[in-house]
């Protein structure tokens, strides 16, 4: 894949987008998503894995809340990935991930993902470049396995915000009572490593793009939600699913 420079990509909506019109389109897409998710669950021939990556305060939790609010809870599962446990560290780095891949008929959302194992681990120099290259090959093989052997469609979203917007959102967690529960002093330390994170994200987009990444401008939640909902609906429609007939 051609090298991506995140600094050259806008974090805001295209100028042709009108906020109210896009929000109305999003509501229509969510209605379609509800119907398509029901069809996915009923047919049970396909699975969807949604990977959401992004810097702290990029809106990962918001995507789960706002885009998937309409779907039947029985047909969607969410896994938020934290630092691995001692048991998980005793296995290969993908062991814990594979246990949370979607069954047929299900949408599985990963809030952060296996990509943390070649992102934060490299930013903090917990692994060397040779280990990272081995993990990159393993990730590509893992995603190929899911897509070919498990009939899983993988959608990978990077929520692209500006460092200025990140600082605004992190400070809101100090100032606004309803957001204080999200406050983590560590996030401000990680924000200082922005340029290093961008370097390794750009390498991820270049080396782990057999299944393409979708880079979503995310300074404005309304455009973020629209673009992700649109890609989900487009993907589900493309599966050409049908309701099964009466069981014999």
Q: Give the mean pLDDT.
A: 96
Helical proportion?
A: 40-55%
How big a fraction of the residues is strand? 5-15%
Largest sheet: 5 strands, parallel
**Whole-number tally of structural domains:** 1
Tell me, what is the CATH class?
Alpha Beta
Radius of gyration: 19 Å
- What string, H for helix and E for strand, traces the elements in order? HEHEHHEHHEHHHEH
Q: Runs with pLDDT <50, length 5+?
A: none
Q: What is the CATH architecture assignment?
A: 3-Layer(aba) Sandwich
Any idea of the CATH topology? Answer: Rossmann fold
Strand order of the largest sheet: 2-3-1-4-5
Task: List the topology elements.
Layout: H1 19-43, E1 47-54, H2 60-67, E2 76-80, H3 86-89, H4 95-98, E3 107-111, H5 120-123, H6 129-149, E4 152-160, H7 163-175, H8 185-191, H9 194-207, E5 213-217, H10 221-237
Write structural notes for this entry.
This protein has helices spanning 19-43, 60-67, 86-89, 95-98, 120-123, 129-149, 163-175, 185-191, 194-207, 221-237, and strands spanning 47-54, 76-80, 107-111, 152-160, 213-217. It is of the alpha/beta class and 248 residues long. The protein has one domain (19-237): Rossmann fold. Strands 2-3-1-4-5 form a five-stranded parallel sheet, with helices on both faces. Helix 1 (19-43) packs parallel to helix 10 (221-237) and helix 2 crosses helix 10 (221-237).
């Amino acid at each position: 894949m051609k090298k991506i420079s995140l600094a050259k990509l806008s974090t805001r909506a295209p100028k042709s987008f009108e906020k109210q019109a896009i929000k109305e389109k999003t509501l229509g897409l969510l209605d379609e998503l509800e119907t398509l998710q029901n069809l996915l669950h009923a047919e049970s021939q396909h699975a969807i894995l949604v990977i959401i990556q992004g810097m702290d305060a990029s809106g990962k939790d918001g995507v789960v809340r706002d885009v998937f609010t309409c779907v039947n809870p029985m047909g969607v599962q969410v896994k938020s990935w934290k630092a691995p446990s001692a048991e998980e560290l005793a296995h290969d780095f993908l062991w814990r991930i594979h246990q949370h891949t979607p069954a047929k008929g299900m949408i599985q959302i990963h809030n952060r993902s296996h990509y943390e194992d070649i992102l934060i681990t490299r930013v903090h120099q917990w692994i060397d470049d040779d280990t990272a290259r081995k993990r990159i090959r393993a990730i590509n093989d893992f995603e190929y396995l899911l897509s070919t052997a498990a009939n899983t469609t993988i959608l990978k979203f990077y929520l692209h915000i500006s460092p200025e917007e990140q600082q605004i959102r992190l400070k809101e967690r100090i100032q606004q009572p309803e957001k204080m529960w999200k406050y983590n002093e560590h996030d401000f330390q990680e924000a200082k490593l922005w340029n290093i994170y961008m370097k390794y994200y750009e390498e991820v987009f270049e080396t782990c793009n057999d299944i393409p990444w979708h880079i979503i401008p995310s300074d404005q939640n309304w455009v973020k939600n629209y673009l992700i909902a649109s890609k989900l609906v487009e993907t589900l429609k493309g599966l050409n699913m049908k309701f099964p007939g009466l069981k014999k």
